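Sanity check

After download, print the first record. It should look like this:
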Amino acid sequence: MIRGNLIVTLMIAHLIASILAVEIRNLKSATIALCVQAFFLSSIFAAFAHLSNNPTLYWWSLTALVTKVVVIPWLLLVYIRKLPKAEITPFMGLTFSISIVSIILVIFYRFIHTYIEFVAPTPEAMVEPARSCLTISFMIFALGLYVLIARKDAIKVVIGLCLLENGVHLSLITLAPGLPSTTFIGIATNVVIAAWLLLYLTGKIFAIIGSTDTSILSELRR
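Expected structure tokens:
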């Protein structure tokens, strides 16, 4: 029970850090929040490894620590130094955005946690802490998707992509903890490459049009 409570506590901290990464408008601070979020994700993997006595999950934890806590935030900070520090003004103001995020999270929590059998019809997913972990993984996924839809800043879009991917990995650790570590390493490597390519393109776009606003990319056709 104590170990299960530890995992739930880590997941709540993971969710709070995710919300901060979404709503903080200073890109450097948002990146730090993403780094903290990834650290909690790595800690969740380690806690599951200890709880289930599964040494493979320690490799998942180490891979997440290297790629998500170190490499991706470092890449973000390197490019943020070359770009405007503040996020391009999004479509929605802060208060309205927080309200929308709160509604999204409540809906996902109530639906997934209540009807978990429709999402993952397995006995393992029905019990704690797996039930809460799977619920929060979908909430993190929804946050990432929200950023991709509602934000205009290219750097914030990369952060949203990382959140979305972190939500997927949290669900994997819940539903398929027996996957080989090479699978997770391959996925994490692909995400690092995708983040770097997006950041590289963002730097080139900024050099051409002087902005990281994804809503005006049509100007590149001129």
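If your output differs, re-run the checksum step. Summary of this record's structure: The mean pLDDT is 83.
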